[in-house]
Amino acid sequence: MSIEQLIKNGAAIVDVRTPMEFMDGHVDGSINIPLQELPERMDELASLKQPLILCCASGIRSGQASAYLKSHGVFCENGGSWININSLNN
C-alpha cells in the first residue's frame, strides 16, 4: 500500500523534527514527537493508529525513526519530507 493510501486510511502522521521546526510548518493533524524523544514516548506511539507515517525535513531523521521503531515492533513507514506528506494529505 502506498503512503498516500495509508494516509487516506487514517494512519497517524508523526513528525520527528524539533518543536521549533514543527511550529514553522507541519502536516495538519500530525503529531510532533522529536527523534530524540522516541525511546521515552514508546507507549504514546504504540497507542496511535498504525501504521505510523514518519516525516521530518528531508527524510533522514524519519528514516532513523522508522528503523528504530521497526526494531521495537512498531508498524511504520518513512514518509520522507513533511512537505511531500502535506501534498498527499490534501
Key attributes of the depicted protein:
single chain, 90 residues, alpha/beta, Oxidized Rhodanese, domain 1, four-stranded parallel beta sheet, 5 helices, 4 strands
> Taking Cα atoms only, what radius of gyration do you get, to the nearest Å?
11 Å
Percentage of residues in helical conformation: 40-55%
Mean residue pLDDT: 95
Shape: globular
CATH class: Alpha Beta
Q: Unreliable segments (pLDDT under 50, ≥5 consecutive)?
A: none
Query: What is the SS-derived class?
Result: alpha/beta
In total, how many domains does the architecture comprise?
1
Secondary-structure arrangement, i.e. CATH architecture:
3-Layer(aba) Sandwich
Largest sheet: 4 strands, parallel
Beta strand %: 15-25%
Task: Tell me the CATH superfamily.
Answer: Rhodanese-like domain
Distance between the termini: 18 Å
Separate helix tally: 5
Question: Got a strand count?
Answer: 4
Please, could you describe this protein's structure?
Helices cover 41% and strands 18% of the residues. The relative contact order is 0.24. It has a four-stranded parallel sheet with strand order 2-1-3-4. By secondary structure, it is an alpha/beta fold. The protein has a single domain (3-89), classed as Oxidized Rhodanese, domain 1, CATH 3.40.250.10.
Please specify the SSE layout and strand pairing:
Elements: H1 3-8, E1 13-15, H2 19-24, E2 31-32, H3 42-46, E3 52-56, H4 60-71, E4 76-81, H5 82-89
Parallel strand pairs: 1-2, 1-3, 3-4
